[in-house]
Amino acid sequence: MLRAFLRTAARARSRSPRPAQDDDVLLDAPDDRLGPALVAAARGEHGLAAGLLAGTRENAAWDHRDRYATRLAAFARSRAQWLDDWQGAAPDDPDALLVAARLSVHRHWDSPARTELLRQVIPAVVAAAEAAGPDPVPWRTALDAARGAGAGHAEFERLWGQAVRRCPHHYGCHVAALDYLAAASPDAHGECLDFAETAAQDAPEDALVRALPLRAAFTCLTTTTGGATATALRTHRRRLDAAADSAIALSAGRPADDPWAAELRNLLVYVLLRLERLRDAAEQLRLTGPYVTSFPWDRDTDDPLGRFLQVREDVRTAVASTTGIAAGGKGAGHPRNGHGGRVRPGDH
Q1: Which residues are CB-contacts of 249 (< 8 A; sequence separation ≥ 6)?
Q2: Could you tell me the end-to-end alpha-carbon distance of the chain, in angstroms, rounded to an integer?
Q3: According to the model, what pLDDT value does residue 341 have?
Q4: Residue ranges per domain, the chain?
Q5: pLDDT per residue over 231-263, tens digit each?
Q6: How many CB atoms lie within 10 A of CB 319?
Q7: Which of 49, 115, 284, 291 has the lowest CB atom count within 10 Å?
């Protein structure tokens, strides 16, 4: 991990980004604020994580808060002593409660008894969210828990109302709602796109939720129901391309080789390849540089880094030889249709 942080710092000092080589690629690399907090947590110290999340809460930096809480909870899943110590020292700390709630949902998500387990934790998760005042991020956790527990529409809408009342443009809460809508009906492509497009249109120009149509396009293009993806392409091709174009514009407004923009660009590459827009995908691969995110590549494989490297090489080869990706997903570098992919509660 320390080597990854040093490489990130060295790369940031470089004036002219170069194409990333395989040994330079970083999977889920933290930014320069999260990195030190993870290193301290690895030593069993929670102070930097507490300070990081307190800062996001005080500055109402909700999208950063959501992402940092997700990453800290993922780290605590394998090494939780620092979080246990934090809760022991400050049992009512809203930041510790946030990470603990996210960790609880993540731990139960992969269990065969997920529905029952999540139904048991929802009251505590909702109570913590209600105690968090104007913070919408705990409500994202509550929405994920409700989806995993199979909550009915009325209950989910009640939680959704609490989330948007606190922050009408919070990306994570919108992703949770989009995932719930998609799970409710595998053929809800039009409804997913309607929801995402409306949310993006109503959001400020710099809001992350403007990328929600790209997430909806991903949902449409990875539906595992027989023939659903082909139907989405045939019925909604114009809207899917528009979602990709909008995300390309968002990507253009962010620096190249930027870990914060990496998730947008990795998802955009995946969608562009599904749409057979090879050269656009190649440009996004150039912009994302060495930063690989597990999502969306872990949908196809248990080795997301290996999958990304394969796709990147195939795209470069295809562009260099001026050959496109074959229709139907059989060509080089085309992400598979998602069969066998793992469902995750908190992917952005």
Answers
A1: none
A2: 22
A3: 39
A4: 202-348
A5: 888 899 999 999 999 999 999 999 999 999 999
A6: 17
A7: 115
